């Protein structure tokens, strides 16, 4: 190891011994993840002008909703079954936890009130 790398490893740097983090630094305004970089290259969101006629505004809203729903990545049937089973198991666990706590509290109160 060179003298400079020993100093850096020991926490000393060339400017007064202050510690500086070593690692990747984010440049302001630039994305650091590949997903953010990919999304930054996409076109800007569509801006819809509002109309004074309430019926045409409702139609524009529904068109916008349909447009946004087309961009959603929907889960497959197998994923939905997995997610449903996980949610049901968690629900059973939480219900059992609440019921057990309720039973223990009522039992404890009955013992105190005797």
TrEMBL record:
Residues in coiled coil: none
Presence of the UniProt keyword Cell membrane in the record: yes
Keyword tags: Cell membrane, Membrane, Protein transport, Translocation, Transmembrane, Transmembrane helix, Transport
Sample GO molecular function, one term: protein transmembrane transporter activity
Bilayer disposition of the protein: Single-pass membrane protein
Subcellular location, record wording: Cell membrane; Membrane
GO BP annotations, alphabetical order: intracellular protein transmembrane transport; protein secretion; protein targeting; protein transport by the Sec complex
Signal peptide: none
Pfam families (UniProt xref): SecE (PF00584)
Region annotated Disordered, chain positions: 1-48
Family matches, as PROSITE patterns: SECE_SEC61G
GO cellular component, one term: plasma membrane
Compositionally biased tracts (Polar residues): 29-43
Ranges that cross the membrane: 83-105
Domain of life: Bacteria
Self-association and partners: Component of the Sec protein translocase complex. Heterotrimer consisting of SecY, SecE and SecG subunits. The heterotrimers can form oligomers, although 1 heterotrimer is thought to be able to translocate proteins. Interacts with the ribosome. Interacts with SecDF, and other proteins may be involved. Interacts with SecA.
Family: Belongs to the SecE/SEC61-gamma family.
Known function: Essential subunit of the Sec protein translocation channel SecYEG. Clamps together the 2 halves of SecY. May contact the channel plug during translocation.
Annotated protein name in UniProt: Protein translocase subunit SecE
Organism: Corynebacterium jeikeium (strain K411)
Lineage per the UniProt record: Bacteria, Bacillati, Actinomycetota, Actinomycetes, Mycobacteriales
Gene: secE
